[in-house]
């Protein structure tokens, strides 16, 4: 499964608008991408501004034997826009996160959340039946006396989606993370100041396990940015903060876990401190390795890999946007400095992936020897459609200076924020604005 030195990554598929139109609406922008635990299914969510344009897409396998080839499976509306009259606040239907639940039967179960409400969805095959009549006529009696029995006959099979649970009114602030537990019974949801523990079967009650809200809000110094359960220790979870720290908590220690946590934090060099230090050190995403030994974290300029047994410094730091250090003032002015890039391990934990600008994303090996930069660009499938022997997309090997491909200037409007790696194969899915690109 290792990525070889020849960088044989190639564009495989694209879902979404393949046209030339630049009229991309907010409703079209993909905001979540997630493979299921088998890798056979892939789900994306977007951010519609009208209820009938707000869908979750579920993509299923077409031909697994030839590598992973996907075809459209179903779509359904997940959330609707709401208005909080008490706070005079409009709640977007935008899907912040989607997580798969472990599959127990032929149906799929997914958790999706917008800023305030989490929903559990069941996606299943439904048989459509029609009534037909059977006639029982054993003898020579007239047809009028024949016994007619209604009979249900199968007509078609459709994919249906039904909300099984709605977990509402538990968060006062915007939900940024949901994470399912390895026990297949519970999950956590995190907002800016609190983390709640839920039982999947109980929608009207949750337990507050982290609360960093100060008595006086003027004393607030940090917010929670992401949270995730350990892959197989059901009592352990981690969460990150805008101060650049990661905390590993054990629910057996205390009912409130924020005071009883292992703190992963790198000591800052006072000489390099600036106005932007805290902003660029804010952790935008965290991810456990599949074996549970390592933690991957992403801040604005770097990727860090931590050993859970060593909390004073990361075992590896990868510079993503080194060339942007001199442009932080401009990035602050155009709000790009607040972009939240996701990060993930490969299925065998040998590589890590994260996004960048110019619709590029990076694959790094754990030894720091290679940086493969790929570009999710519409020219890839144009080249494929024209019968080109090579898909013309940018691939470079370098020292981690992402964001610039060739001599092109950085386009900050094109960015890969959301991505997912197949759990068993070298197949990755990335969201580029309104398109879902799959590379193998």
UniProtKB/TrEMBL annotation:
Family designation: Belongs to the phosphatase 2A regulatory subunit B family.
Keywords on this record?
Repeat, WD repeat
The record's section on SMART domains has: WD40
Gene encoding the protein: ABSGL_13670.1 scaffold 14267
What name does this protein carry? Protein phosphatase PP2A regulatory subunit B
SUPFAM superfamilies referenced in this protein's UniProt entry, alphabetically: WD40 repeat-like
Give the GO molecular function terms.
Answer: protein phosphatase regulator activity
Membrane-traversing stretches: none
Q: Does the keyword Repeat apply?
A: yes
- Pfam families recorded for this chain? WD40 (PF00400)
**A Gene Ontology cellular-component term:** protein phosphatase type 2A complex
Q: Which InterPro entries match?
A: PP2A_PR55 (IPR000009), PP2A_PR55_CS (IPR018067), WD40/YVTN_repeat-like_dom_sf (IPR015943), WD40_repeat_dom_sf (IPR036322), WD40_rpt (IPR001680)
Record carries keyword S-adenosyl-L-methionine: no
Q: Which organism is it from?
A: Absidia glauca (Pin mould)
């Amino acid at each position: 499964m290792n990525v070889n030195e020849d960088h044989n990554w190639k564009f495989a598929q694209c879902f979404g608008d393949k046209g030339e139109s630049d009229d991309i609406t907010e409703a079209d922008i993909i905001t979540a991408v997630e493979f299921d635990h088998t890798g056979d299914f892939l789900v994306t969510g977007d951010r519609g501004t009208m209820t009938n344009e707000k869908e979750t897409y579920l993509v299923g396998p077409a031909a697994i034997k030839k590598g992973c080839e996907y075809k459209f499976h179903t779509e359904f509306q997940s959330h609707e826009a709401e208005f909080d009259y008490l706070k005079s606040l409009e709640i977007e239907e935008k899907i912040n996160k989607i997580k798969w639940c472990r599959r127990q039967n032929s149906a799929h179960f997914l958790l999706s959340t917008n800023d305030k409400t989490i929903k559990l969805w069941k996606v299943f095959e439904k048989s459509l039946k029609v009534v037909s009549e059977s006639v029982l006529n054993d003898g020579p009696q007239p047809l009028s006396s024949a016994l007619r029995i209604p009979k249900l006959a199968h007509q078609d099979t459709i994919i249906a989606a039904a909300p099984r649970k709605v977990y509402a009114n538990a968060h006062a602030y915007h939900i940024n993370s949901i994470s399912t537990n390895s026990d297949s019974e519970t999950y956590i949801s995190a907002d800016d100041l609190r983390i709640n523990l839920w039982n999947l079967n109980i929608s009207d009650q949750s337990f507050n396990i982290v609360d960093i809200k100060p008595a006086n809000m003027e004393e607030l110094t940090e917010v929670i940015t992401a949270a995730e359960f350990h892959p197989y220790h059901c009592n352990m979870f981690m969460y990150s903060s805008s101060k650049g720290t990661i905390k590993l908590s054990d629910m057996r220690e205390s009912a409130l876990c924020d005071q009883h946590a292992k703190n992963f934090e790198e000591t800052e060099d006072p000489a390099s401190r600036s106005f932007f230090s805290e902003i660029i050190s804010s952790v935008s995403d965290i991810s456990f390795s599949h074996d549970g030994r390592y933690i991957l974290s992403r801040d604005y300029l770097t990727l860090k890999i931590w050993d859970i047994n060593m909390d004073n410094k990361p075992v590896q730091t990868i510079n993503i946007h080194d060339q942007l250090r001199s442009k932080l003032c401009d990035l602050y002015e155009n709000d790009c400095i607040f972009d939240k890039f996701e990060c993930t391990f490969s299925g065998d934990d040998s590589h890590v992936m994260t996004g960048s600008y110019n619709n590029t994303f990076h694959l790094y090996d754990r030894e720091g020897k290679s940086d493969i930069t790929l570009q999710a660009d519409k020219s890839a499938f144009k080249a494929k459609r024209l019968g080109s022997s090579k898909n013309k997309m940018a691939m470079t090997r370098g020292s981690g200076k992402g964001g610039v491909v060739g001599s092109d200037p950085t386009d900050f409007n094109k960015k890969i924020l959301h991505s997912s790696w197949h759990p068993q194969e070298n197949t990755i899915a990335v969201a580029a604005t309104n398109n879902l690109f799959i590379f193998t």
